Amino acid sequence: MSTLLRPDPVHHEVMAPDGTRLHAVSVSPRAPRGVVVLVHGVTMAIPFWHRQLEDLPDDLLVIAFDQRGHGMSGRPGPGGISLDALAADVEAVVDALVPPSLPTTLVGHSMGGIALMGWAARSAPCRPPNVRGVVLINTVASQIVSGATAFIPPRLAAVLMVGLLPAARSPLPLAPGSAPALTGLIDLLAMGPDRSREDLTLTTRLLRGTHPRSRAAFFRFLAELDAESAAAQLDLPTVVIGGRCDRITPLAAATRILDLVPHAELHLIDRCGHQGPLEASHRVNELIRQAALPSSHDLVPSA
Questions:
Q1: Which residues contact 269 (CB under 8 A, 6 or more apart)?
Q2: Residue 302 pLDDT > 50, yes or no?
Q3: pTM for the full model?
Q4: How far, in Å, CA of 65 to CA of 121, rounded?
Q5: Tens-digit pLDDT profile for residues 39-67
Q6: How far is CA 228 from CA 38, 114, 117, 144, in A?
Q7: Is residue 26 within 8 Å of residue 95, measured between CB atoms?
Q8: 10-298: which CATH topology?
Q9: Nearest to 63 by CA among 18, 25, 101, 16
Q10: Does pLDDT of 19 surpass 90?
Q11: Domain boundary assignment for the chain
Q12: 111-123 and 212-223 are packed helices; what angle lies between their axes, rounded to 10 degrees?
């Protein structure tokens, strides 16, 4: 979409069931044909989706929100980080911002994909009929730490286990002088060979901008995660996107999701690391649009 024609984003505040305030933005053409809801990963925020917010509103209402403890959303209280809490946040955003007459596709990257697995379990008894599909990008259903360390060189695995993970799980601010080392580790672990300097800079900035206590709590949550039973309840058409150079959620994680999710198809992107929506935005956007744009007979009838 041309910058001159692109509508300005509209900012929203949504309240989660436990009272956590969620910040969201939406961008819409005059007559959207469908809706896409974007859910980012751990230590990211709405700016992570900037290429989707720029490109997809040609014909789609695009909604993105900061997950609890991230970006401009509120930090949850004690016990406020769980799979069900993340799922409830997705549910709250969909209920508040998605027009029920438009076919809707939920898109999750990394921990955002995990939140959508939780949403599948939470919403199973009474799923909104306009939610027609899901896109899972660079994500995993369980064993995120052991899965990552099994597919990287031993020396790099040692750096991850001894250096990066303890720092990430600590509620203390990152040391001011740690920026170059952190950027290097992110480049090694999260990026593929074709990443741009802009992609790396944005990823590092968003990680460093996450509140230390939120960052620590979420990394502890992910280390103990098992969302496989939730993923098995995702009975909607599901597109799974993986990067062939993803060291954090490698190919084995994507194929495991195929085993769990009844109606899933896999797309692998060459030379792409963990940050697919940044590194391979053109291909990712193409796959999102294919999943989200309905045929004429798919329109949701008015109640």
A1: 241, 242, 243, 244, 276, 280, 283, 284
A2: no
A3: 0.90
A4: 20
A5: 999 999 999 999 999 999 889 999 999 99
A6: 21, 10, 8, 12
A7: no
A8: Rossmann fold (3.40.50)
A9: 25
A10: yes
A11: 10-298
A12: 70
